[in-house]
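FORM 7B: Structural annotation worksheet

SECTION A. Query
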Amino acid sequence: MRPGVDLLDRVADLKTSGKPFALATVVRTVAATAVKAGAKAVILPDGTISEGWIGGGCARAAVLKAAREAIADGRSRLVSIQPPDLLAERGVAAGDEREGVRFARNMCPSEGTMDVFVEPVLPRPQVVVCGASPVAVAVADLARRTGFAVTACAPAAEQGAFAEVDRRIEGYALPASEAGMRFVVVSTQGRGDEAALSAALAAETDHVAFVGSRKKGEALRAALAEDGLDPALLARVKIPAGLDLGAITPEEIAVSILAEIIAALRRPAPRGAPAA
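SECTION B. Predicted structure
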């Protein structure tokens, strides 16, 4: 750890900046090990240990690999690092997983056992609302109350429709890439459909949905295809947005859209996959 830097301060700084990382915590040790239970380390997406310590090379490779994977898929892991004879006695090999535990080999002379819990700490998933229609406003409000970070993309004259959001973008120029999962809802009521959808498809996102009828959405797809947009990109757009709940009011439609987003959040498809 760098002098003068507290591990918890580093964790707070990374969370404030929205940067993903993993926190590795030694939860159990048996026999002689270089570290004891309670030792922690902050691990960055490239496998660099930013702060803290979890022992030497005997354990580090397995923990860093688990940290990179945890950051990539958002799932915690428990890694049990054991000497070869103990692994053999239990009938497992390095890399095996049983009942939520991944086993790794400890080749150090100490021949100790160390269990490490690796937890990904990711930016809040983001809902990007393009347009300031009643449905867009309802989606932004519900998404924020559901725990998402909300970005409102709309012309300056329409931004006043949103009472409170985490970020505002005038127009539809979405950043090409950002840390964390990003779900885009296009709901402009015809005032900027093509511009908003083109911008959404030009960015890295996990889900893009269009609020409107299937007929209108397909006409928009055809128009964008004629303009040269890749059909594979257009196939990613979910039309119409939301689950089929029989929703009628803007608030009900917002519920159906958020339900669909939560399903995509909990059961993520690879980026670039066609809409279901």
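SECTION C. Observations
Residues 57-73 form the longest helix (17 residues). The first strand starts at residue 21 and ends at 30.

SECTION D. Sign-off
Analyst initials: ____
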